[in-house]
Every structure is written in structure tokens, then in C-alpha cells.
Amino acid sequence: MPNWLRTLSLRNKLVLTILICLVLPSLVSMNVSSLLTRDAVRSQVADNSQESMRIVNQIVNGQMKNMLYVMNFIQFDEDLQPSIRELGRANDLTDKGDVLAYKQTIIKRITTVINSFGNLHVTVLLPNGEYVASYSTFAFNPNEFLQKSWFSDVEMASGYNVKWIGAEPNYSHATNQPYLLAAAKPLRINGLTYGYVVVGMELSTIQQLFDQYKNNESMVIVDGEGRILVDKDSTTIGHPFPYYDQLPAEDGSSFVKVDGEDYILLSSHVTPEWKLVNMSPYKSAAQKIESFRKTDFLIQLFFLILFAIVLLYMVRTLTKPIARLVQTVVRIESGQLSERSNINGGDEVGRLGYVFDRMIDRIEWMLEENRREQELKRKAELAMLQAQINPHFLFNVLNSIRLKIMMKGDSENAELISSLSSLLRMTINRNNEYISLHEEIEINEHYIRLLNSRHGDRVQLQISAASDTLLFEIPRFLLQPLIENAYIHGLKSKGGEITIASRICEDGRLQVEVRDSGVGMPPERLAALRNHLDIVPAHQSEETSSPSLSGIGLHNVFERLRLIYGHRFDYEIESGPDQGTQIVLRFPQLAGKEG
């Protein structure tokens, strides 16, 4: 199992499992459905596109049939045949009036037919160089058709077959279109050719039809060589259709890929030589089917999300009490014994929360009883030590001795008596367990003065207390055991320097430091001392063999602070060989307030 999965909570593991069980089958189902229905969708799209193209094909075929009808009409109309044959036999000896009459008869008859179509231009060519045209021949001589490369194919057309010429440059000035779609056939009777008919159709009708398609679709008419004959964009006429070689062999559909996108190609014959071709994006052609599938997918996704939300809500409701119980356990582990889960209910989790809260109540009560017993014990020890000699009697006697010595002019000894008197005054004051920091420092100044008078070596006491800490109250006789410990074990009862420093920490607690310039201790001795202060009861501490002035050893100082401030008290001891020792105490500013 991956490490990240192991670190997830029970709720997150349950949620992850649910999401996998919901989403994974849905994704697999949709992908399998897409694969199984892809061919069916493509076939359906091709059928739909073929049906749409069939309508266009009918219109285009209608235009082609109009061209055929006009050519067949000219060939087989009984009213036209005499005039055409007579005009074809005319020569220089024929009366010009008769020639004009023949032409007018032919034009009138042809115009009657093509007026109903409106977009055809008819030319009748005769072997003797005469011609008849339904358009103005002022700038174009129809006999130029005889010089075209395709005209030989017209002569070779057998029977009544038609030569579908393709896109020809516009020879009629009746329209501004650049091309006309042309077809031609020979006029024969009994196997003899007596003329030719050429029909040109304007492209506007078909182009308007093609123009109805979107810009990303294209519909064109191409010839047998793949050249474009009709397109909504006239600039492409005469150019090769780029995907002609991918057209299906027969009328039908095929698929090509252009720039990474699938296109559907449809083709159908409009003449034996010409094909109507439609090219449209598969995505657009399948829009309706894909829209249905998308709607179906969105419906499934909606219910999937709805079910997931309901399920996740139920999971959260069931696991929320467990998460709250875990958070409560973590806070209690950090020392906040007042925390409770407050979980109620008739199920297993509710009963577990209730029993857990009652268990913590019992533990807290037992700890409070133990703390109260220890505090009473400590106060009894202190009272017993202070009561060994009547302190008022000693204080009054010392003041009398001090006055007599001062009267004799011995101010140095009088000052020592004054320091001892001040020290005893703090000892006999049993009404207040806490004193200000500056008073505690003053007591230790008297203590150092007495210590220096007792021994020959001079101990210098340096005070580096921040001014904003001097009025804070601390437990009485807190620093004296530390000063005595620094003198005996650090300075080895010899001269040196002891420093008292204080400041306010970032978390608002008071920090008091006592450091000496003594011999220090090696790392193993320092580790043993830290362990000793953490686990050894007070009556077994090393200070009991050499009690301090207050009767409370170094270990008892730490025990008192733990009892008073609880988990909000901590300390540090740093030392090294020939680097001195530093003891740092941190505790709250308000005395007697436990965390």
C-alpha cells in the first residue's frame, strides 16, 4: 500500500473508495458504449448526410435535364428542323433576306423554350459557318467553339449522346459570372451531321444552393479528372479537388482526416462523367446524434454526482463524531485535560464518546487530588523549616546587634547584619507565597553579600533584568536555590560571576535565566542531570545532601513550578566543559493559573 494512502484518515479512505466505486464503472461503461456504438453512429451519420445530399442532387439533376431537354428539343422539333437545314445549305448565292428569316425563326423558337428556364445560353453551329445564338455575339464569335480542344470529342459522340464539356469561360455578356457550365451534341439525321448545338448554363442557381452550407462544409461538382466545375467560390473552378482520390468508387460515402479532424465525403453522379461531391465535418454531421449521447451522459453524470453528494454526506455524518473524538484525544495528549468530546447518541460511537468523557473526568479528578496533596505536603515542609527557630525573635535580636555595631563605627559588619536581617525578614513572611521579581533579586543580592563575607573568594552577581519584568510576581525563594547550585557546583565554592537575566517571551511568558562562569559539565553529566530532574522524586535529589538556605533543593524548584503552572512551565539547561552552566525557566506571568 502506498505511504500516502496509509496516512489518509478513515473518512478520506472511505470517501476515496466510494468515489472509485462510483466513477470507475461509469467511465468504463461510457468508453465501452462509445466503442460499441461508434460504427453504428458513423453509419447513421452517413445515411443522414446521404438523405440531405439527395435533395441537392435532385435540384442539380434538374438543371442537367434542362440542358438535355433544350438540346433534344433543337434536334427533334419539327418546326425547327426545316429552318436549321435550310440555313445550313445557305451560300453566297442565297438571298440574305431568306437567311435572316431562317435565323429569326430559329431564335424565336429557341427563345420560347429557354425563357422558362431563364439561365441557359444556346448556340447552334452549322457546317457552312452560319450560327444562331440566344445571346449577344457582338464580342464573341460562336464559330470559335469549332477551335476548342473538346470540339473533336463532340464530333465523335455517337448517336444521340451528349458531350459534357464542363466549366467554360463566360462568352455571354448578359451575366457577370466568370464561367458557364457547358454541354454540346451533334445534330444528325440518318447518320449525317448537319449541325451542332452548344448549351451553356449560368452557375448562379447551383452556387446559391451550395452557398446555403456552412463555411466549414464544401459542395462541388467535379469532372472525371477531378477538376472542380462548380463551387460557391468561383476562384476554385478549374482547380483539382484535393480529396478526389479518396472518393468512394461508386456513389456513397467515405471518411477522411483533415488537420486531425474527421470529415465525411459523399458523392453521386449527376451525369455519366460528373459527380456531385459534399465534404462536411463528421462532428457537425453527427451533431444531433452526439447531442443525444451528450444529453444521456449529462443525465447519468447528474445522478452520479447527486448520489455521490448524498453518500458523502452520510459518510461525513457517520465519521464526524469519530474525527471529533480523535481531535479531543490529541488535545488531551498535549495536556489540555479540560477538553471533552461531548459526543452523544444511542449508537456505538455515541456510547464510546460518553464513556471516554467520563474516563477523562475521573483522570482529571485524580490528578487534581494528587496535585493538592503534593502542594499541601510542600507547604507543610516549608512551614516546618521556617518554624524551627522563632523567626521574630531572631529578627529583633539581629536588629539590636546591628545598631550596637553601627554605634561602634563598624559599618561593614553592620551592613552584613542588615543583609542577614533582610533575608530573614523574607523567611518569616508566611502570608504571601509570591513576591515581585525585583524583591527576589534583592534577596539574592543579600545572599551573595553574606556568601562573600563567609568565604574569601568574591562572587560577582550581575543583574540583566528587563524593566518590564521587575514587577511580575514569582514564587518565593525561586532563584536562591539556583544561585546556591551555581556557586557550589558551578564555581566550586570559589570566586566567579553569576548572572540573573529576565525577559518576556514571544508567547507572553516570563523567562528567567541563571548562568555562571564556572567549570560546566560534560555532555553525559548534563544528560544525566536532565533525566534526574525529570524522573527523580524531590526527597531523593542530590541537593538533599547539601541543603540550601531555604531548605528547598534544585529539584524541588522544578517540582514547585510544575505544580503551580502545569504544562505551561518548561526549562532548559545548557552547559559544556569550561563554558559554565545556564538554567532557563519559562512560566506564565500570572501566578497560580494553570493551563
Can you walk through the features of this model?
This is Sensor histidine kinase. The chain crosses the membrane at residues 297-315. Pfam families: dCache_1 (PF02743), HAMP (PF00672), HATPase_c (PF02518), His_kinase (PF06580). It is a single chain. With 595 residues, the chain is an alpha+beta fold. It is built from 15 helices and 17 strands. The protein has helices at residues 3-6, 10-76, 81-89, 96-114, 151-155, 204-210, 282-285, 287-333, 348-386, 391-407, 411-428, 437-454, 480-490, 523-535, 554-565, and strands spanning 120-125, 131-133, 163-169, 179-189, 192-202, 218-222, 228-230, 252-258, 261-269, 275-281, 434-436, 459-465, 473-475, 496-504, 510-516, 570-575, 581-587. A hairpin with a 5-residue loop joins strand 16 and strand 17 (581-587). Helix 3 runs antiparallel to helix 4 (96-114) and helix 10 runs antiparallel to helix 11. It is rod-shaped. 25% of the residues are buried.
Biggest beta-sheet profile: 5 strands, antiparallel
pLDDT below 50 for ≥5 consecutive residues: which ranges? Answer: 536-552, 591-595
Give the quaternary arrangement of the chains: single chain
Number of strands: 17
**Percent of residues in beta strands:** 15-25%
Number of helices: 15
Write down the overall geometry: rod-shaped
What is the structural class?
alpha+beta
Q: Give the proportion of residues in helices.
A: 40-55%
Biggest sheet strand order reads: 2-1-5-4-3
Distance between the termini: 41 Å
Query: Mean of the pLDDT scores?
Result: 81
What's the gyration radius in Å?
Answer: 58 Å
